[in-house]
Amino acid sequence: MVGAATCGRAAGALEVLRAIKNELKKHKLDCPVIEVGCMGHCYAEPIVTISKPGFPPICYRQVNPVIAQRLVREFILGDDPCLEFVLGALEENELVPSFSDFPRARFEQKVILKNCGHIDPEQIEHYIANGGYSAFVKALQIQPEKVTSEVKRSGLRGRGGAGFPTGEKWEICRQAQGKPKYVIC
C-alpha cells in the first residue's frame, strides 16, 4: 500500500508508486499495489506498507524511489525487512514497534477515519467490506422516528456556524407540511 493522499503526493508518493510497480514488473512479480489515504502521519510521507506472510504489516517512512526499489528486492523478494526505514507495524509483534505503542496512540480513538491508510478510497468494495453503508442499511430497515431518535442521541451537529443539532433539524423537517422532502448532503 502506498499513501497517496495529498500529503503523500506532495512528498513524492506517485513516483514511489511508479518505482514499486516497475520493480515488481522487472522481477515478474504479480503483487497488488494499492493507493490508500492518509494514516495521519503526514510528517513521514511517503508511507509504504508491506504485508508479507510471516511478518506483521510494516509501514515504511519517507520512502523515495530508490528505497522503494530496495524494499521490493530485499523484503518482498528476500526476507530483510529493511528496519532502518520502518515507521511502525499495523499490529502487535516482536519485530518492530506497532502504532499502538506510539505515545500519541493513547490519546487517539479513530472512529470515522479508522480505515484511512488501510483501504483504497476509490474502491467502493473496500469501503463496504469494512462496514461502509451499514448504518444506511440499518436506517432503511427501521421506522423514520427511530432514525431521527438515533441521530438526536448521537449528538451530531451541522457544520454551519451555529452547529444546529441534526436530529432536531430532521425532526422539524419531518413534521413540516409538504411533499416530497429532501436531505441534501
TrEMBL record:
<dbReference type="GO" id="GO:0046872">
    <property type="term" value="F:metal ion binding"/>
</dbReference>
<dbReference type="InterPro" id="IPR036249">
    <property type="entry name" value="Thioredoxin-like_sf"/>
</dbReference>
<keyword id="KW-0408">Iron</keyword>
<protein>
    <recommendedName>
        <fullName>NADH-ubiquinone oxidoreductase 51kDa subunit FMN-binding domain-containing protein</fullName>
    </recommendedName>
</protein>
<dbReference type="InterPro" id="IPR037225">
    <property type="entry name" value="Nuo51_FMN-bd_sf"/>
</dbReference>
<keyword id="KW-0411">Iron-sulfur</keyword>
<keyword id="KW-0479">Metal-binding</keyword>
<dbReference type="GO" id="GO:0051536">
    <property type="term" value="F:iron-sulfur cluster binding"/>
</dbReference>
